C-alpha cells in the first residue's frame, strides 16, 4: 500500500513537471510583456533594457529552471502588471473563486441529486421528461451566453440582482467573504447558477441513470417485497447506492468548475483567480500565468491522486490495477 | 436501411418522438451546412461582395440606404445574417465532427492498447488520461492555440485556427473513449473466443480490430454523439475567449460572440439567430445521444 | 492585508454613509500602479491626476492652467523656463510642498526606471534658487515645454525616502505602487489592484473644491457589455467607455445619459514602405509606390465606416492630428475623395491593373471597434481588386509583430501626448532612429520632414512654426505617408444627476463631478 502511494505521488510530481514545462513553453507565444509595461514614448533602448531586466532573452531552459527553483520555495515572482508578489495576489483572489465554486457545487449537488431522483422515479412522467429535456437546453448553450442572458434579464430588465462583482465583502484575516452581507449574497446568485448549471445537469443525469439501474436490482426488489415504503426504498436504499459514482464524478468535476470559473468570472467581473488569469493573458503577465497554471495543475493532480487512493482504500481488489477508471 | 428500421433500435426510434424530431432537425442543419454555397443568398466570406452601407439591416425590412432586404437582417459589416449562419454552421459542424473523429481515433487506439497490452503501457496511457481528464479543455485549447499561433506564418493563420480548434477540442475529449474501450477490452480479452483466436495464430492487431472493437461500438457511439454536442459548444466558448475562427470567416460561436456585443443596442437579430441555430443543433444532438444511450443500454429496456 | 471593510461589517453604518454624495465609476482597465512615474499610460495618468498634481495642469478645454506653479515664464534667451511655486501647499500626509520636491520628482521621473523619462529629454538641468522657484534649463529653446509636463506629477521627497520609494520600479513593488501621497483634491484611502480603488476628498486642498463628493470608488469592468448592464441597472454611476453600438441605447434609456466627444486619437492605416518585397515574398512591394498608397486612400469609404461601424460618433481625419490640436493645419484639412474608379485607375497606372494580395495587420482590443474597421477596409479594398488577408490579434501580439516588420499594411491610432502637432512628427513621420520615429513601423522617410522637425521643436514664433507644420502636413498628404481615417470618439455613460466634464485626453477628473442626491 505504501509503495503504491509513493509510486503514485512520484508519478504525480512527474506530471506536474511536464505540465509546467508545456505551460511555460507557451508564454513566449502569448505576446511580449514589455509593450504593456512601457508607454508610447519608449525608445528601442528602453525595450531592450526592460527585456534584459526581466530575463526574457535568457534561453528557455534557463527561464524554466529559474522559475522552478523559485516556485518550490513558494516564490512565484513579481507580477509584471501590478508589480507585486504573485503569491500575495493569488491569496487575495482565491477566496472569491473558492466561494463561487463552493456555492455552485452545492447548488449543482442539491438540485442535481433531487431532480435526478425525481426523474428516475417518475421515469416516464411528463414532468420528468420535461425536466430531462429542459436540462439539456442549459448545456446546449455556451456558458458565457447564459451568463450574459441572465444579466440582461435579472439585472438590466428586472433590476433584481447585481450585474457584476462580489458586492460588499467582509475581511477575516486573509479571507474575504461575501457570505455575510446582503449584497454579497445577492451577487453570488447569478454567477453560481451560470457556473453550476452544467454540473447540475451532469449530476442529475448520472443520478437518474444509476438510480434506474439500481431500482432494477434484486436487492431493491427484495426491499420492496419486504414491504418497505416506496420512500424508504427510493431514498434509503437506492439513492445510497448511487452515491459512489456521484461523488467520484463531482470530485473530478471540481477541476472543470475551476476552469469554467474563468468564463463566469470574466462575464460577471467576479474578482477571483480566473479573472486574474484572463487579465494576465491580456497583459502577458507571465509570472501570474505560470503560477496560476502550476496551482491549477497541483490541484487537479492532487484531486486525481486522492480519488485514486480513496478507490484503493474502499476496494482493495483494485490494488493490482492502479489505473482503474470509473 | 430496411433492416435498420426493423431492428430493435429502429423500433425504439419510431416510438421516441423526441428522437425523431431531433434527427430531423440535425439532418436539416447538416444539409443546410453542406449545401450552404448553393442555398445561401450571399457569400459572406467574399469581402468584395459586401457593402458596408447594408450594415445593421433589420430582418425582412429594406435597408435605409440601399433598399436591400435581408431575411434575417445583416450584421455590422453588412453581411447577410442568414448566409453567415449557414457558413458558420458549416465551420462549427466541421470542427465538431473532426474533433470527435480525432478524439475517437486517439481514444479507441489508446484504449485498445492499454486494455490489451496492460502492464506499463496501460499505466502510462491511463496516467496521461488522468491528467487530461482533470486538465480542463479550455485551458488545453488556450495552451495549444498560443503555441500554434506563434509558430504559424501569418498567411496561414486563418486556416490554422480551425485545425488548432479541432486538435485542441479532440485532444481534451479522447479520454472518455479510451476508458470505455479499455474497460471493454480487458473484459473481452479473457473470453474464450479471443483465446481461441490467439491460438490459431491471429495477430494482436487483428484480434483487436476484428473481435474486440465490434463489442465496444455501441458505448462509443453514445459517447461520440454527446461529444459532438460538447465539441460544438466548446468551440463557441473558446471563441468567447478570442480563440477560434477569425471574424472574416466566423463559426457559429464567433457569430454569437460578435452578436452579444449588440445585445443592449437593439440589434437583437445578430445574436438571436446564430444562438437559436446553435441551440437547435446542440440540443438535438444531445437529445439523440440521450435516446441512444437509453436505447442501447439493454438493462434499461 | 490592507483593505479596510469596517463599513461593510456594519450594514447600518454603511446605510447612513450612503446618503452623502458617494460616487462609483468603472472603466475597462485598472490603473496598473499608483506610482505616477512608473507607467506612462492613460489609465494610470488619468486616475492619478485626481491624487497627484503637476506644476501645470489642463483645464476643461485642455488649456494650460497654473497648478503647483502659480505662474511661469521663459528665461532670457530661451535658456529654459522659470516656475514660481504656490506657497502653503501640503501633501496628503501633511508635509509641505517646496522646490525640493520638484527637483526630487524630476530626478525620479527622468530616471532609467521611469517610463516618463522622454518628457525630460530636452532638459539640461533643473535648479532651485529659492524654496519657491524652480528653473528648468533646456538644451535648446523649447516653446512647448510647459505643455509637455502637464502630467509630470510631483511626489513628496520626504515621503518617498521614508518609505523606500525613491525610484519607480517596473518589475517590482515599491511603497508607491500601492500607496499615494499627492497634493491633489483626492486622497487614496483604499487600493485593491484589479478590484477597487477608493478616493476621499482632500479637505486641505489649496483650491476651493468644485465637486461635492464624499467618496469615490473606481472598479475595473473589463467586459463592456457587463459595464453597460451595470450602468443600466444602477450599480454604477458612470462608465468609460460606452461601446459605440450601445450609445444609442443609453441615449434613449431613462435615467442614464451619454456624454459624447472626440478624443485626440487619430486612427490611420500605415504601409510597409521600406521592405523590398511583400510579406508573402510574391513580388516587389507595391506600397513603395505613392500611387498605390493613394489608391488605398481613395478606396476607403470613411463616411460609410463612420455611419455604420462608428454609428455617427466619430469625425473624419485628414492629418495625423485632429482639428483643435495646436499646430493642426487648416490648409490641408480635406481627406482625399472616396473614388473607387479613380483608385482603380491609379492601380493600373502603377502597374497593378488586377490588384495584388497582401497582409493587413490589425489589433482587436486596442481601439474602439478596431477589428470591425479593418474588416470593412478589407471589403472596400476588395472592390478595387486588392486582396487583403486580415490578421487581427490582441494588442499583446500586435506590437511585437509590427516591430518585427511582419506586415504589409497596418492600423494605428495616435494621440499626441503633448497636444501639439509636433508629437506625431517625432514618433510617426521622422525616419526611424534609436530615439526618433520609434513608432514609424513602415519606415517612411522624407529628408525635408527630418530637417523640419528640430526647427519646429525650437521655433518660438507661432506663425513661422505653423508655416513649417503646414509644410509637413502637405508633404505627408502628398506622399500618403499614412491614410488618416477618423478621430476616435469618446463615449462616456452616466446616470442622470451626475454632472461631469469630459476632456479630450480621456482623463476623468473627479474635481469637476457633482452628484445631485
From TrEMBL, chain A:
Q: Could you tell me the keywords of this UniProt record?
A: Cell membrane, Membrane, Transmembrane, Transmembrane helix, Transport
Pfam families to which the protein is assigned, alphabetical = BPD_transp_1, BPD_transp_1_N
TM ranges are: 12-30, 100-121, 133-154, 246-270, 290-314
Gene3D superfamilies the record matches = MetI-like
Cellular component GO terms held in the UniProt record: plasma membrane
The listed locations are: Cell membrane
Q: Give the InterPro entries listed for this entry.
A: BPD_transp_1_N, MetI-like, MetI-like_sf
Biological process (GO) annotations held by this record are: transmembrane transport
User: Under which name does UniProt file this protein?
Assistant: ABC transporter permease
Q: Which organism is it from?
A: Meridianimarinicoccus roseus
| High-level lineage | Bacteria, Pseudomonadati, Pseudomonadota, Alphaproteobacteria, Rhodobacterales
UniProtKB/TrEMBL annotation, chain B:
Parts of the chain that traverse the membrane: 20-40, 91-117, 129-148, 160-181, 212-234, 268-292
The alphabetized list of GO BP terms reads:
transmembrane transport
Subcellular location per the Swiss-Prot or TrEMBL entry: Cell membrane
Q: How does it sit in the membrane?
A: Multi-pass membrane protein
Q: CDD domains per the record?
A: TM_PBP2
Q: Which GO terms describe its cellular component?
A: plasma membrane
Q: Which domain of life is it from?
A: Bacteria
Q: Which UniProt keywords apply?
A: Cell membrane, Membrane, Transmembrane, Transmembrane helix, Transport
InterPro entries named among the record's database cross-references: BP-dependent_transpt_permease, MetI-like, MetI-like_sf, OppC_N
For the ABC transmembrane type-1 domain, which residue ranges apply? 89-289
Q: Which family does it belong to?
A: Belongs to the binding-protein-dependent transport system permease family.
Protein name in UniProt: ABC transporter permease
Please give the organism.
Meridianimarinicoccus roseus
From TrEMBL, chain C:
Give the Solute-binding protein family domain ranges. Answer: 64-431
Question: Which residue spans adopt a coiled-coil conformation according to this UniProt entry?
Answer: none
One Pfam family here: SBP_bac_5
The primary site where this protein sits is periplasm
State the Gene Ontology BP annotations.
peptide transport
Which keywords does UniProt give here? Answer: Signal, Transport
- Location of this chain's protein in the cell: Periplasm
- The highest taxon in the source lineage is Bacteria
The entry's family comment says: Belongs to the bacterial solute-binding protein 5 family.
This chain belongs to the protein called: ABC transporter substrate-binding protein
Organism (species)? Meridianimarinicoccus roseus
Amino acid at each position: 500500500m505504501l509503495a503504491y502511494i509513493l509510486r503514485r505521488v512520484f508519478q504525480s510530481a512527474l506530471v506536474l513537471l511536464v505540465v509546467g514545462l508545456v505551460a511555460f513553453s507557451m508564454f513566449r507565444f502569448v505576446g511580449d510583456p514589455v509593450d504593456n509595461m512601457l508607454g508610447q514614448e519608449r525608445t528601442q533602448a528602453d525595450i531592450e533594457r526592460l527585456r534584459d531586466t526581466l530575463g526574457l532573452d535568457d534561453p528557455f531552459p534557463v527561464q524554466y529552471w529559474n522559475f522552478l527553483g523559485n516556485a518550490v520555495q513558494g516564490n512565484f515572482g513579481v507580477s509584471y502588471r501590478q508589480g507585486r508578489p504573485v503569491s500575495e495576489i493569488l491569496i487575495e483572489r482565491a477566496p472569491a473563486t473558492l466561494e463561487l465554486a463552493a456555492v455552485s457545487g452545492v447548488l449543482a449537488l442539491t438540485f442535481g441529486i433531487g431532480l435526478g431522483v425525481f426523474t428516475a422515479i417518475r421515469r416516464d412522467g411528463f414532468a420528468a421528461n420535461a425536466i430531462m429535456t429542459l436540462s439539456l437546453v442549459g448545456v446546449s448553450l455556451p456558458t458565457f451566453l447564459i451568463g450574459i442572458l441572465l444579466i440582461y434579464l435579472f439585472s438590466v430588465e428586472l433590476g433584481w440582482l447585481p450585474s457584476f462583482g462580489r458586492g460588499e465583502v467582509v475581511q477575516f484575516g486573509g479571507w474575504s467573504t461575501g457570505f455575510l452581507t446582503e449584497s454579497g449574497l445577492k451577487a453570488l446568485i447569478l454567477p453560481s447558477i451560470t457556473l453550476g448549471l452544467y454540473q447540475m445537469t451532469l449530476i442529475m443525469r448520472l443520478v437518474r441513470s444509476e438510480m434506474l439501474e439500481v431500482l432494477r436490482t434484486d436487492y431493491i426488489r427484495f426491499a420492496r417485497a419486504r414491504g418497505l415504503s416506496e420512500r424508504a426504498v427510493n431514498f434509503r436504499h437506492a439513492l445510497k447506492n448511487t452515491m459512489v459514482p456521484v461523488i467520484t464524478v463531482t470530485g473530478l468535476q471540481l477541476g472543470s468548475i475551476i476552469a469554467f470559473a474563468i468564463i463566469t468570472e470574466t462575464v460577471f467581473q467576479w474578482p477571483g483567480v480566473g479573472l486574474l488569469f484572463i487579465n494576465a493573458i491580456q497583459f502577458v503577465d507571465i509570472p501570474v500565468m505560470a503560477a496560476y497554471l502550476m496551482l491549477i495543475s497541483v490541484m487537479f493532480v492532487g484531486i486525481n491522486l486522492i480519488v485514486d487512493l480513496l478507490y484503493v482504500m474502499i476496494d482493495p481488489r483494485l490494488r493490482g490495477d492502479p489505473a482503474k477508471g470509473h | 436501411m430496411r433492416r435498420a428500421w426493423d431492428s430493435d433500435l429502429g423500433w425504439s426510434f419510431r416510438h421516441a418522438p423526441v428522437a425523431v424530431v431531433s434527427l430531423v432537425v440535425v439532418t436539416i442543419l447538416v444539409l443546410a451546412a453542406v449545401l450552404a454555397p448553393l442555398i445561401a443568398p450571399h457569400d459572406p466570406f467574399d469581402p468584395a461582395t459586401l457593402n458596408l452601407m447594408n450594415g445593421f439591416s433589420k430582418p425582412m425590412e429594406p435597408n435605409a440606404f440601399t433598399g436591400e432586404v435581408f431575411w434575417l437582417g445583416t450584421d455590422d459589416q453588412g453581411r447577410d445574417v442568414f448566409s453567415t449562419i449557414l457558413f458558420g454552421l458549416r465551420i462549427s459542424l466541421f470542427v465538431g465532427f473532426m474533433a470527435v473523429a480525432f478524439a475517437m481515433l486517439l481514444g479507441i487506439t489508446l484504449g485498445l492498447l492499454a486494455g490489451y497490452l496492460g502492464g506499463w503501457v496501460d499505466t502510462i496511457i491511463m496516467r496521461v488520461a488522468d491528467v487530461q481528464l482533470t486538465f480542463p479543455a479550455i485551458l488545453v485549447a488556450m495552451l495549444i492555440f498560443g503555441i500554434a499561433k506563434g509558430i504559424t506564418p501569418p498567411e496561414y493563420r486563418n486556416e490554422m485556427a480551425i485545425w488548432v480548434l479541432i486538435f485542441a477540442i479532440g485532444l481534451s475529449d479522447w479520454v472518455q473513449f479510451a476508458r470505455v474501450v479499455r474497460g471493454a477490452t480487458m473484459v473481452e480479452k479473457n473470453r474464450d473466443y479471443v483465446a481461441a483466436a490467439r491460438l490459431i495464430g491471429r495477430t494482436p492487431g487483428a484480434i483487436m480490430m476484428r473481435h474486440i472493437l465490434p463489442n465496444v461500438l455501441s458505448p462509443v457511439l453514445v459517447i461520440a454523439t454527446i461529444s459532438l454536442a460538447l465539441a460544438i459548444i466548446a468551440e463557441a466558448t473558446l471563441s468567447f475567449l478570442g480563440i477560434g475562427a477569425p471574424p472574416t470567416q466566423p463559426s457559429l460561436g464567433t457569430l454569437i460572440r460578435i452578436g452579444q456585443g449588440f445585445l443592449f443596442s437593439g440589434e437583437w437579430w445578430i445574436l438571436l439567430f446564430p444562438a437559436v441555430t446553435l441551440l437547435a443543433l446542440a440540443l438535438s444532438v444531445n437529445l439523440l445521444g440521450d435516446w441512444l444511450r437509453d436505447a442501447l443500454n439493454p438493462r434499461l429496456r | 492585508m490592507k483593505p479596510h471593510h469596517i463599513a461593510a461589517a456594519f450594514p447600518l453604518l454603511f446605510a447612513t454613509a450612503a446618503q452623502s454624495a458617494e460616487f462609483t465609476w468603472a472603466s475597462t482597465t485598472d490603473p496598473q500602479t499608483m506610482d505616477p512615474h512608473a507607467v506612462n499610460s492613460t489609465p494610470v495618468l488619468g486616475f492619478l491626476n485626481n491624487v497627484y498634481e503637476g506644476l501645470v495642469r489642463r483645464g476643461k478645454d485642455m488649456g494650460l492652467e497654473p497648478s503647483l506653479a502659480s505662474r511661469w515664464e521663459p528665461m532670457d534667451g530661451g535658456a529654459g523656463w522659470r516656475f514660481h511655486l504656490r506657497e502653503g501647499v501640503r501633501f496628503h500626509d501633511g508635509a509641505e510642498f517646496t522646490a525640493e520636491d520638484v527637483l526630487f520628482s524630476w530626478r525620479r521621473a527622468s530616471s532609467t526606471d521611469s517610463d516618463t523619462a522622454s518628457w525630460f529629454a530636452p532638459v539640461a538641468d533643473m535648479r532651485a534658487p529659492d524654496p519657491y522657484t524652480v528653473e528648468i534649463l533646456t538644451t535648446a529653446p523649447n516653446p512647448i515645454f510647459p505643455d509637455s509636463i502637464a502630467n509630470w506629477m510631483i511626489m513628496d521627497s520626504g515621503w518617498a525616502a521614508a518609505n523606500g520609494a525613491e525610484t519607480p520600479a517596473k518589475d517590482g513593488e515599491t511603497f508607491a505602487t500601492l500607496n499615494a501621497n499627492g497634493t491633489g483634491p483626492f486622497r487614496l484611502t483604499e487600493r485593491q489592484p484589479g478590484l477597487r480603488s477608493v478616493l476621499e476628498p482632500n479637505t486641505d486642498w489649496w483650491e476651493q473644491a468644485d465637486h461635492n463628493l464624499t467618496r469615490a470608488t473606481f472598479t475595473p469592468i473589463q467586459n463592456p457589455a457587463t459595464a453597460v448592464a451595470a450602468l443600466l441597472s444602477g450599480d454604477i454611476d458612470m462608465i468609460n467607455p460606452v461601446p459605440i453600438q450601445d450609445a444609442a441605447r443609453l441615449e434613449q434609456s431613462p435615467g442614464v445619459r451619454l456624454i459624447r466627444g472626440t478624443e485626440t486619437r487619430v486612427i490611420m492605416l500605415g504601409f510597409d514602405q521600406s521592405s523590398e518585397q511583400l510579406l508573402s515574398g510574391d513580388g516587389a512591394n507595391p506600397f513603395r509606390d505613392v500611387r498605390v498608397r493613394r489608391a488605398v486612400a481613395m478606396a476607403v469609404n470613411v463616411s460609410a465606416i463612420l455611419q455604420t461601424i462608428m454609428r455617427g460618433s466619430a469625425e473624419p481625419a485628414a492629418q495625423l492630428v485632429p482639428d483643435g490640436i495646436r499646430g493642426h493645419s487648416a490648409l490641408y484639412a480635406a481627406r482625399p475623395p472616396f473614388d473607387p474608379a479613380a483608385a482603380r485607375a491609379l492601380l493600373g497606372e502603377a502597374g497593378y491593373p488586377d490588384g495584388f494580395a497582401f497582409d493587413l495587420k490589425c489589433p482587436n482590443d486596442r481601439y474602439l471597434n478596431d477589428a470591425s474597421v479593418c474588416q470593412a477596409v478589407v471589403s472596400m479594398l476588395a472592390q478595387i481588386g486588392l486582396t487583403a488577408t486580415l490578421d487581427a490579434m490582441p494588442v499583446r501580439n500586435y506590437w511585437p509583430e509590427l516591430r518585427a516588420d511582419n506586415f504589409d499594411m497596418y492600423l494605428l491610432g495616435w494621440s499626441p501626448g503633448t497636444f501639439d502637432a509636433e508629437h506625431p512628427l517625432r514618433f510617426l513621420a521622422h525616419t526611424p532612429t534609436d530615439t526618433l520615429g520609434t513608432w514609424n513601423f513602415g519606415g517612411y522617410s522624407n529628408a525635408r520632414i527630418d530637417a523640419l522637425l528640430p526647427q519646429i521643436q525650437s521655433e518660438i514664433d507661432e506663425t513661422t512654426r505653423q508655416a513649417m507644420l503646414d509644410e509637413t502636413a502637405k508633404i505627408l498628404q502628398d506622399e500618403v505617408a499614412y491614410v488618416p481615417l477618423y478621430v476616435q470618439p469618446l463615449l462616456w455613460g452616466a446616470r442622470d444627476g451626475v454632472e461631469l466634464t469630459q476632456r479630450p485626453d480621456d482623463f476623468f477628473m473627479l474635481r469637476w463631478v457633482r452628484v445631485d442626491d
